[in-house]
Design a protein that fits this description.
By secondary structure, this protein is an alpha/beta fold. The protein is built from 16 helices and 22 strands. The strands form five sheets. An eight-stranded mixed sheet has the order 11-9-12-14-22-21-20-18, with helices on both faces. Strands 2-8-7-4-5 form a five-stranded mixed sheet, with no helix packed on it. It is elongated and about 120 Å long.
């Protein structure tokens, strides 16, 4: 059978056709031996399935013919087809053990030649055994743009319902590119180039990393293409942890890691509220770390350019493509190209959505390529005169400003569409773009990260500090949903046996590397660390020392170690000295120990401090004005802050209360004040200190009166 060329998918069909067919698979990725469930709707009496391994030259892997067809109508708006087609299984196929890891697609063909496709990925059964570079296939963004069923995260085609979808299912056909989905070819071009150059790639999806972040430990390099705009927190955490352990990242795309998503229903549904996030996302104000909005903005405040180096420039969509020109021709990236500074690499690499540096980018990076896009597209009126584009490279090591880095390399092309297109044969200087792509991948594979296990604080040794990390991580798993998952770094650091949790087996491996103290302080024949992890001993302050061996005891005699009381909240510890407050001095018996009391000499149970100067009202010589030093230069028992002109009652304000006293003392002589005017009030009213309260004093008083 002659197969249609992959270059023509989505352009022409095998023959003129009228019969209808659409389809999808039950999952995005599989292992050899897994069962693929195909869900198909067609008005053809029978249909066939061709399974192809999609490379520059597609490889036919299997054909099944004569499968009975069943027609299922396109969903009505009220059926919310964007949340899943819910079609029954039409045919099931067991993936043969011999099939290699890669990007695959099933082609579904009716009796009259109508066809559609649906993609899936085949993982390697032993991650890292075939190759140390993993190509991360993009399904999230394809799902976000998929309008099948009437809505996507971008559009609503439902009459009288302009609200875009906030939940979209992977369990439905893709609506464009004959079922392969938007942005498919931008991946196909990159991985096909690398496969043809001889690189041994393994393939995973964003969902695979979400479901098992630990899988990235099997690889030295993660490769991205095709616009990974939508990323879950677990996936982002895993990518970052891969980099921090010394693993490498190559982004041959743009506008990646831009929106956070959540997964539901066994990762079959992707949730992203986008512009609705602050008003509709149920996690807003409840668990802000999982709000589905842009990563760089509130409440997430986790800009991806801190990792990738660059971020999407919104107005770039309004400008014509431009060449990316070489900035550092001596850089190893350009080895063998013969390019000089200022010369273009390939043809119009700065195309579609492009990226540039921000204030959150790493401070020391190699800007290897640069463009300025300044020509508006027809009909566009961009809000700025131009946008800048950069391709960057840096390493997580001291040479690039990371003192404790382990050498993870990062390349970001800054171009969502241009780089994949420039790799295609026939584009200007495509050979040079392919060479640069190969240079980047080879350089990263030539610098594998050092074996990484148990060094939680990345200081180059496995010691007591790392045990504290293990103690905090013990029992955590990597296969739980976002809302329950602890730090991915835990599993990256301590799950030595790759079983997705940190358990006793991992502790045994940890102890083979541990160089810290091996003690048995309670003399029970078991190492302290084993006592703590096994629950025989408490370690409330997580310092690796059993509580019964700590210098502090049980001061309140309640049967619990003092530190445990504090950690459990049974006792308060306002001065953070690990000693319960009830065991410390409280001289004024007001319920606040002296070390934390803002007025330890006099009782002030509420710790009232009107002027917030750290001195309680009961002890403050000027409670109306901040005067933490309690300075009183004239020794009148009123702080200097309250000795301002006219503040006769020393409350920090000159108001009608002071005027009433001033009026009683008006025309008083210091040696003979009138009735109702005390000697102190007369002295405080004599603002010019001439021995008489007169008009001169009133003139000064009036300047400060605020009543």
């Amino acid at each position: 059978m002659v197969l249609s060329s992959l270059c023509c998918i989505g352009v022409v069909r095998v023959s003129p056709a009228e019969q209808y067919i659409e389809a999808y698979t039950g999952e995005e990725s599989y292992l050899p031996g897994d069962i693929i469930h195909f869900h198909v709707s067609t008005d053809s009496p029978t249909f066939s399935i061709e399974i192809q391994h999609l490379l520059w030259t597609p490889q036919l892997r299997a054909i099944v013919s004569g499968i009975p067809g069943t027609y299922i109508p396109y969903p009505l708006p009220e059926e919310q087809g964007w949340r899943g087609a819910a079609w029954p299984v039409s045919y099931s196929w067991v993936v043969p053990d011999a099939w290699p890891t890669g990007s695959y697609a099933a082609r579904f063909v009716t009796e009259d030649g109508s066809d559609t496709w649906h993609p899936f990925t085949l993982r390697h059964p032993m991650p890292g055994a075939h190759g140390r570079a993993a190509f991360v296939m993009n399904y999230n963004t394809r799902n976000a743009y998929n309008r099948w069923g009437g809505k996507s995260l971008y559009f609503s085609e439902i009459p009288d319902d302009p609200h875009k979808a906030v939940e979209v299912s992977f369990q439905r056909p893709f609506d464009v590119v004959d079922g392969l989905g938007k942005h498919y070819f931008r991946q196909h071009t990159v991985y096909s180039t690398l496969e043809a150059a001889g690189f041994a790639l393994e393939y995973v999806t964003e969902t695979d990393i979400y479901q098992n972040p630990n899988i990235t430990r099997a690889y030295d390099l993660l490769i991205f293409a095709g616009h990974h705009e939508y990323i879950s927190r677990r996936t982002y955490d895993a990518i970052e942890a891969h980099h921090l352990r010394g693993g490498h990242l190559a982004f041959f795309s743009g506008n990646d890691i831009y929106w956070q998503v959540r997964f539901e229903e066994g990762a079959h549904t992707m949730v992203c509220y986008k512009s609705y996030a602050f008003t509709e996302d149920p996690f807003y104000g409840v668990n802000d770390e999982l709000v589905t909005t842009v990563w760089y903005g509130p409440p997430l405040n986790r800009p991806a350019e801190a990792l990738q180096g660059i971020r999407f420039v919104g107005p770039s969509l309004s400008f014509e493509p431009e060449d990316l020109t070489v900035q550092i021709s001596s850089h190893w990236i350009f080895a063998g190209t013969g390019l000089a500074d200022g010369e273009p690499l390939g043809e119009l690499l700065a195309a579609s959505e492009t990226d540039y540096l921000t204030e959150f980018s790493p401070p020391d990076m190699d800007v290897v390529l640069y463009a300025q896009r300044a020509t508006p597209l027809p009909g566009k009126n961009p809000p700025v005169d131009y946008v800048e584009v950069a391709a960057v490279y840096y390493e997580d090591d001291p040479a690039y400003g990371f003192a404790n880095g382990l050498g993870g390399q990062v390349f970001s092309s800054g171009s969502e569409a241009g780089w994949p297109a420039a790799l295609e044969e026939g584009m200007r200087d495509y050979e040079k773009v392919r060479l640069v792509t190969a240079n980047i991948v080879q350089h990263m594979l030539d610098a594998p990260p050092a074996p990484f296990f148990a060094d939680y604080d990345r200081d180059g040794g496995v010691d007591l500090d790392d045990f504290v990390g293990l103690e905090n991580c013990f029992g955590t798993r990597s296969d739980q949903p976002d809302v329950q998952t602890p730090e991915v770094w835990c599993v990256f650091t301590f799950d030595q046996d790759y079983d997705d949790d940190v358990d006793a087996d991992d502790f045994a491996q940890f102890m083979t590397l541990y160089t810290g103290p091996l003690e048995d302080c309670n003399v029970n024949g078991v190492l302290d660390l084993q006592d703590i992890l096994g629950g025989t001993s408490m370690d409330c302050n997580t310092n690796g020392i059993p509580e019964e061996c700590e210098p502090l005891g049980d001061c309140n005699q309640n049967g619990e170690q003092d530190t445990c009381d504090v950690v459990a909240g049974t006792s308060q510890d306002c001065d953070s000295n690990r000693l319960p407050d009830e065991c410390q001095s409280d001289g004024d018996a007001d319920g606040t120990i002296d070390a934390c009391d803002n007025c330890p000499q006099q009782g002030n149970p509420l710790q009232a401090d009107q002027d917030s100067d750290g001195v309680g009202n009961a002890c403050d010589n000027c409670p109306g004005q901040p005067n933490g030093t309690q300075k009183d230069a004239d020794g009148d028992a009123f702080g200097d802050a309250c000795d301002g002109p006219g503040d006769i009652d020393h409350d920090g304000r000159v108001n009608l209360n002071d005027f009433a006293t001033f009026a009683v003392c008006y025309q008083a002589l210091m040696n003979a004040p009138p009735p109702g005017c005390s000697l102190q009030a007369a002295a405080d009213s004599d603002l010019d200190k001439d021995g008489r309260v007169d008009l001169n004093d009133f003139a000064t008083f009036a300047l400060h009166l605020t009543g």
